[in-house]
Amino acid sequence: MVRRHRIRQAAILTAVTVLLASVASANALKTHRIFSSNMVVQRDKPIVIWGWAAPGAKVSVQFGEQQGESTADAKSGRWEVTFEAQAANATGQKLTISSGEETIEMDNILIGDVWVMNGQSNMAWGLAKTTQADIERATAHLPLLRRIGISPNESYTLQTDLPDDEVDGWSVCTPETAGSYSAIGYAFASRVQRATQIPIGIIDNARGGAAIESLVPRHKFDDDPLAKRYADWVEKRRAEFDWDAAMKPLIEAWEKEVASKKEQGVPADQLPPKPTRDNLRSWSVPGRSPSDAGACYNGMFGAFKGLNIKGVLFHQGYNNAMSSVCRPQRYRVLMKLMVDGWREDFGDPPLPVGVIGFCAGSIPQTRENFETWTVSGGAFIREAQRLGLGDVADPTNTAFLPAYDVQIPGLHPFKKRQHGTRAARWALNQVYGQSINWDSAALVSAERDGDRIVLTFDKPVMPDDMSMHVNGFSIADESGKFYLAHAVQPLTKDVGI
User: Which of 151, 185, 467, 483 has a Cα at 20 to 30 A from 353?
Assistant: First the structure.
């Protein structure tokens, strides 16, 4: 009897210890996980630092020579300190947060511009897996370029923080670290940093397989009837979702594993825990799928709302171009809502946004396969991207950056540097005011001249090899059937084809 009592008493003490540790952990001083050593904070805008502590606790924050204090909220424990805006500063500074006997220290923090790299897998695609990655990495000695990576983290509701295991932490760009950077993000940011000579930070938060629906702030779906009908459909699917049926395969697999381990003599405290709803793949849960309203934004972008940023570079389209889900009219609406939502949530109405046109998938059209590939969802999505961004009606701070001219076959083309470089040209010209050419040609007129049509553009249109023959044009007769057109650059001073 005594022995049993002691065992029970030990168990109670263990449980109490675990409970107290859990409470202490919940009340421990911490910052939002977007903050870490080596980060870049946005210049020329207020510097906001926030996190959590024991409810009612006093929190002191020092950044460089600036100091501030806050009191953790009585319920949530959230605290926040805002410092005055500062100019770019390439000298590493220390961030110190203290509350009671707890202290957090971060160092080597720079002040510059922070750009978000958003979209799906072709934006997330790492530099190490692209063409000419070897020389790009070998020359990546860029101490003023920093990066933080956010892994897939879909959520039905807007998150207030990022999970521990889904955030890389900020890193300094070196030949050893550059390979993990978004290839497009690296090409973009490395050129902007070298041209401006100020610190540049990039937040890699693209999600492979994400549809545009999941990247739009959830509250924006109510702003348009077409978007709202879609969001209501998502809610209906979620309300009707059979959680038990979805969980059944996981439970059965768990029961089988547990039975097997028990036969092997595995102790009870080492058996795998019973699966919960959180163990379901996000793809399987309506409202949390990377295809559904706001899911990726809720867990990967809006989750660090409050951080000031410079702008966003966006590259996406494949999951919306597939024939079963290709709805360009809705895509156009969502493109505008997405940009408007970012600007609202981050409190920056003229927030610069560059959209790199969709270019993945399919194969380039040639004279041999022209008819087979005449109809493609990609063309509709590219048009929807351009028109939707145009609907934002802010050409000064937004740009559609065509990408189809550098397309190569495959779901994940290895040519990424060209897209990042083109985006850097736009940013350096439009955002930073440098004299760098970036704009693409726009059609001014199309006039019939006998058996030909003369196209006039606002600037020269020439192939890279300066050939007089230009590919990529087709023409339809009265039947509506398209045929490849023979296009040439005229031997005149007029700009046309």
Answer: 151
Is residue 199 located within the same domain as residue 327? yes
Q: CA separation (Å) from 178 to 115, 138, 183, 297?
A: 16, 9, 9, 25
Q: Which two tokens stand for residue 423?
A: 């985006």
Question: In the beta sheet, which residues pair with residue 476?
Answer: 482
Please, which pLDDT band fits residue 23 given cuts at 50, 70 and 90?
very low
Residue 252 lies in a domain: no
Percent of the chain with pLDDT over 90: 74
Are 119 and 215 found together in one domain? yes
Query: What average pLDDT score do residues 399-428 get?
Result: 88
Question: What number is the average pLDDT over the span 2-17?
Answer: 40
Q: Directed axis angle between helix 225-239 and helix 328-345, to 10°?
A: 90
Beta strands in 53-209 (DSSP E): 58-63, 66-71, 78-83, 89-99, 102-119, 142-149, 171-173, 200-204
411 and 336 part of one domain: yes
Residue pair 397/350 in contact by the 8 Å Cβ criterion:
yes
Same domain, residue pair 448 and 323: no
Tell whether 205 and 307 lie within a shared domain. Answer: yes
| pLDDT on residue 15 | 42
At residue 202, the pLDDT reads 98
Domain span at residue 454 reads: 443-488
Which of 364, 368, 454, 348 minimizes the C-alpha distance to 405?
A: 364
Count: domains in the chain: 3
Q: Is 203 among the domain residues?
A: yes
Q: Does the pLDDT of residue 406 top 90, yes or no?
A: no
The CA angle 305-308-310, to the nearest 5 degrees, is 120
* pTM of the predicted structure, to 2 decimals: 0.90
pLDDT for the residue 12: 40
Same domain, 133 and 220: yes
